[in-house]
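Entry for the shared binder. Reason: the reviewer on the internal report wants the predicted structure included alongside the sequence.
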Amino acid sequence: MTKMTREELDHWVQDMAARLKPEAETAHAGDLAEIVAGEVEVIEARVAVEDLDHFHDQVRDVIEALACIRASNPDEPTDL
């Protein structure tokens, strides 16, 4: 399997973040990491060994950014 260049990898991560932004606004807080993990699983085999740390750092940054989006859109209060 062909490994991605760092430029391709960076582009993929940025694209993933953009795709997941609308989901982050409505997903339950605990689901965000799971959603990102599903996306990452698809591409991780194409990440060169020397780029794994860089990739994981970028993914962590995306999860943190998506969590901030989620935090700015808290669940509506419910009447019990």
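Summary line for the report: The CA atoms of residues 4 and 46 lie 6 Å apart.
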